[in-house]
Request: fold
Amino acid sequence: GCIVVYSEHLSPLKEAADWLKKTATATNVNICDNWFREYQILPQRTHPMMNMNGFSGYLLTAIKLKHPNDCVWPIPGHTTSHKEADATE
Reply:
């Protein structure tokens, strides 16, 4: 599955990203800043709002890895151990 976490602060997302990498819980772990721009839409003209804060926070994204113990066995072509493989032959 996908992991997506939003925060206004970078520090907690950095800690989470480090943990995801260290524990091999996820792959493609990325943090990006989210830049939000509000637009004013009027007849015959559209432009960014004049009084706005363009920064809105950070996103942590990752792809969760499934631990082999969480898989439903048997997966075709895979075995959980050599003993089980020997027993099925």
In short: Strands lie at 2-7, 26-35, 39-42, 45-48, 55-64. The two ends are 34 Å apart (CA to CA). The longest helix spans residues 10-22. Confidence is low (pLDDT under 50) at residues 82-87.
